[in-house]
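Tutorial handout. Part one gives the primary structure; part two gives the three-dimensional structure as tokens.
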Amino acid sequence: MRNYIEDLLKAVRTQVLLRLIKPYTRVRLATIAGELGVSEAEVETLLVSLILDNKLDGHIDKVDGLLEMREAAAETGAKKYIALAKCAEQLRSLHAAATARIGGT
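Part two.
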């Protein structure tokens, strides 16, 4: 049973950590450590494993003791803008084809 306790604790801490940092773009490692009840070194180890597993898009600023998330919202906004631009272009070409078919200008 002791063999599995560490893996279970890591899994639970990882889930709590992901929920904890979700709304933020910057979080102090000390704050995360306080919320999880572990040392900053353990928080850093968890964050490194999440970043390497591509479950977290960010980087650790060791000088200031911060986790800085990449701007995922900005990327999502850019993708939406591109999709809307493609949709507008398709509507424009559909309108042109319909107008040509009817014999208009």
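Part three, for discussion. The first strand starts at residue 26 and ends at 28. The mean pLDDT is 87.
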